[in-house]
Amino acid sequence: MFYIIGLGLCDEKDITVRGLEAVKGCSRVYLEAYTSILMIQKEKLEAFYGKELIAADRDMVETESDEILRNADKEDIALLVVGDPFGATTHTDIVLRARSLKIPVRVVHNASIMNAVGACGLQLYNFGQTVSLVFFTETWKPDSFYDRIKENADLGMHTLVLLDIKVKEQSEENLARGRKIYEPPRYMSITQAVSQLAEIEEIRQSGTLDPHKTLAIAVSRVGGGEGQEKIVCGTLAELLSQPPEVFGEPLHSLVIVGKRLHYLEVEYAQAYAVNPETWRNVAHNAYGCALE
Known about the structure:
Elements: E1 2-6, H1 17-24, E2 28-32, H2 42-49, E3 54-56, H3 58-63, H4 65-68, E4 77-81, H5 89-100, E5 105-108, H6 113-116, E6 131-133, H7 144-154, E7 159-163, E8 165-166, H8 172-177, E9 186-187, H9 190-204, E10 215-220, E11 230-235, H10 236-241, E12 252-256, H11 263-269, H12 276-285
Parallel strand pairs: 1-4, 1-5, 2-3, 2-4, 6-7
Antiparallel strand pairs: 7-12, 8-9, 10-11, 10-12
């Protein structure tokens, strides 16, 4: 059996009982370590699970899946994933590979940012397409995310924006020369994300991401509990003006608030507002939300 097991969002105790039982029965356990990051060290997971974990980077999961799936038709093998197994298309791909090899697959689900983002007070029913925002470079500034956000905005839907992470990445020079030298890990901050959104808005000028009339909610380490989880909301301009430490430690995500905004969502999120008065005024005047 090949297991793909979600670890949840925070620490070693977030794994489900079903997932933990599966881990304990596996002969090999891999830890996927690039689509997201853990808030704790691998060694702490190993101590809690009673199992040695094999770190699986992008190359292993995407190009060496045969090694991960080796003998999974005869013994139990697990791939551990931060959040939920289907939070990244990579994991769908490895399931398809297992199926093609006639290996039985069992998925153990867990919490992910896709549902835990409801902690900010916005209703999950009102979210549209989720988009990813990658690091811009001097020569590469992909802006297809803007079209998805605009499609959501035209329907009044909220948009969850997942911010880029770079783990075990090579520079263009090292990649071209075939040198296995990796850059230090980088995690996109809220400040950088909002700056990139504003840059593309300046080019497109549709008003979809008008910095002074667009409400947004920054979240970090959702599910991490008091002292770790951070939620900050305001206009894009207000978020851009905040010092980086306000947003807490990575990983960060950003929600662009849609016009189908309910007054209960406004009231709930107001507790996290940079300026509650501005939050309410923009919700009323720019979003047309009838506040009580």
